[in-house]
User: What shape does this take?
Amino acid sequence: MTEEFEGEELGEEEESLLERLSTVKERIEYLLRKYPEARNSDFYLLILYIRHFVPELSKYIKFIPYEIIRKYDGLTETVRRARQLVQAEGKYLPTEPEVLRKRRRLAEKFRRVIPKL
Assistant: This one.
């Protein structure tokens, strides 16, 4: 199973990893073992995961040193929270109906479980 992207074939090591590490948990454990800095940054861990295990996306992400990534570690959560606030106001809701349904169901569960203060 040789995947190609932008004229490059996956190296033997990358192909072996894809075959040997079949679950997300196994892959995360591998990355945390090989790249100790990833233990401190979910953002860095995500970038590494994409680079190693998602060939279709990895061709768009070049190597970014941890020293640079760590400056933006909270960015993913900050962006998620800001999107959530904007959408809670009813603005710029998801364009995919299934995403909207899932988020509404989750919000309803939270409303039932967490009493209003």
Remarks:
- The CA atoms of residues 24 and 107 lie 27 Å apart.
- The helical segments are 12-20, 24-34, 42-53, 55-58, 66-69, 75-88, 97-113.
- Residues 1-9 have pLDDT under 50 and may be disordered.
